[in-house]
Design a protein that fits this description.
Radius of gyration: 18 Å
Keywords: Methyltransferase, Transferase
Number of helices: 10
InterPro entries: SAM-dependent_MTases_sf
Order of helices and strands: EEEHHHEHEHEEHEHEHEEHHEE
Number of strands: 13
Low-confidence stretches: none
Protein name: Methyltransferase type 12
Structural class: alpha/beta
Pfam families: Methyltransf_23 (PF13489)
CATH topology: Rossmann fold
Helix content: 25-40%
Shape: globular
Organism: Candidatus Woesebacteria bacterium GW2011_GWA1_43_12
Strand order of the largest sheet: 6-5-4-7-8-13-10
Number of domains: 1
CATH class: Alpha Beta
Mean pLDDT: 96
CATH superfamily: Vaccinia Virus protein VP39
Distance between the termini: 34 Å
Length: 290
């Protein structure tokens, strides 16, 4: 497999969940070998089980019930957006059940979102209305050109099948002075290096690309987007979600045992704040306005 970013030869890095991840020795970008059409993969992967604890998905334990934690984390992103764009038209890519669209609307933004998951979109529409939520992926959804002040991708960029093509589409939807904010994992973080294959972002096949600051910068620059602010973000998570990640992505038998104990004693919603410094966030703008 040739490197998606620089074209150099990649080599096998690790195998997990039956999928091979290859890494470029030249630039460091890592990529999952999907071996199926991306559109059909989207339809199969992001079903109800993805949001409700299906162990084969290694995703959320109960996205809807964990809303208080998700909202708490989303408010951090919103606070950073407000510093740059205190108002305007906002689009969330991969909006899931629409929680961020909901709080953005309450904060005064003209907010919209879309997601490929039928299950998630049905819930998002109930929350925000069908005029604000669309079903689809970046390639399939349609919006007027240069119509958004803010485009947000929170824990979504690593799921994209062709991020450069998708950035090109998003670029066309962004106003000349608009911003794009991306939150994803950092393969050069200490947590990623220490945990290795057990790092929470190494979840093939749902995660297809694995970036560091340099590879993400290079990719953005190729599509005339210039990063001008970077920061790290910690997250509030429920205890049961942390244990769910540990027993799936972390491949921990102890976490699986402990999860059953926590469930039996109804301690699953105990809040935990994790600041592992492995979640990087970048705000970028169009080259001619950088």
């Amino acid at each position: 497999m040739k490197c998606y970013l620089c074209g150099a030869t990649t080599r096998f890095y690790l195998k997990k969940n039956g999928y091979m991840i290859y890494r470029c020795d030249s630039c460091g970008l890592a990529r999952t070998e999907l071996n199926q059409q991306y559109d059909s993969f989207l339809a199969e992967q992001y079903n109800k089980g993805y949001f409700t604890g299906d162990l084969s998905r290694g995703a959320y334990i109960n996205y809807k019930e964990d809303k208080p934690f998700i909202i708490r984390n989303m408010r951090k992103f919103l606070a950073e957006i407000k510093k740059v764009k205190p108002r305007g038209k906002l689009l969330e890519v991969g909006c899931a059940m629409g929680f961020f669209v909901e709080i953005a609307l309450k904060a005064g933004y003209d907010a919209y979102g879309f997601d490929p998951s039928d299950y998630a979109v049905d819930n998002a529409v109930k929350l925000n209305g069908d005029t604000r939520i669309k079903r689809g992926n970046i390639s399939s959804v349609e919006y007027p050109a240069e119509s958004f002040d803010v485009i947000a991708l929170f824990d979504v960029f690593e799921h994209l099948g062709d991020p450069r093509r998708d950035l090109r589409k998003l670029f066309s939807l962004l106003k000349k002075d608009g911003i794009i904010i991306i939150a994803t994992g950092d393969t050069e973080s200490t947590a990623a290096k220490i945990l290795g294959r057990r790092w929470t972002f190494y979840i093939p096949p749902q995660h297809l690309f694995f970036f560091n600051r340099q590879t993400l910068t290079t990719l953005l620059n190729k599509e005339d987007l210039i990063p001008y602010r970077w920061f790290r973000i910690g997250k509030w998570l429920s205890l049961r979600y942390v244990l769910h990640l540990a027993r799936t992505t972390g491949e921990s038998r102890f976490a699986s045992w402990l999860y059953d104990i926590v469930k039996a004693f109804k301690l699953g919603m105990f809040p935990l704040y994790l600041s592992m410094q492995d979640n990087m966030v970048v705000i970028a703008q169009k080259k001619n306005h950088a």
